[in-house]
Design goal:
There is one protein chain. The chain has 116 residues and is an alpha+beta fold. It has one domain. It contains four helices and three strands, in the order αααβββα. It has a three-stranded antiparallel beta sheet with strand order 1-2-3. The chain binds zinc ion. Zinc ion binds next to loops.
Length: 116
């Protein structure tokens, strides 16, 4: 099962690499990669996830068929083919927030234990 996912992940990466090189068939490659991901329940790595349009499977070439903007702590990718906008939060800051929340939570529970 784990091996299957490893193979699937490799295929996904290869297909997306091909999509990057071969703009003519990029949509097809992205489509195939996403199919593998769905079928095998293998998540597409976060770095690659933002390289294509979720709606029309266009492989993004920044400055050509997609527009990248930062707004309200998010990076937005606008597909210029179907005008679909995908927003991704800044992962680093998200992680920091999560870590500080976890710290606050553990501090709270420690406090409870002391009370009891
Ligand atoms: Zn699109």
């Amino acid at each position: 099962m784990i091996d299957q996912k490893k193979i699937a992940l490799r295929h996904i990466k290869e297909l997306l690499e091909e999509a990057e090189k071969n703009t003519e068939f990029a949509k097809r490659y992205v489509h195939l990669a996403r199919n593998i991901s769905k079928r095998t329940k293998t998540p597409i790595p976060s770095g690659l996830k933002r390289r294509f349009c979720k709606k029309c499977s266009t492989f993004f070439i920044i400055g050509e068929n997609c527009r990248v903007r930062t707004t309200n702590g998010k990076v937005s990718y606008t597909c210029l083919e179907c005008k679909n906008v995908q927003r991704f939060p800044y992962i680093k800051e998200q992680k920091q927030k999560r870590a500080s929340l976890a710290r606050a939570y553990s501090a709270k529970s420690e406090h409870k234990q002391i009370k009891q």
